Amino acid sequence: MDEHELIKKAIKDREAFGKIVDIYYKDVFKYIYRRTLDKEITKDLTQETFLNALKYLHTYREESPILFWLFGIATNVVNLHYRKEIDERKFFEKYENAHSKNSDSLDDDIDFKFIHRYITTLPEIEQVVLTLFFFENRTFQDIALILNRSVNSIRKTYYRGLKNLKRKLENDGYKF
Question: 1-97 domain in CATH 3.40.50.720?
Answer without folding.
Answer: no
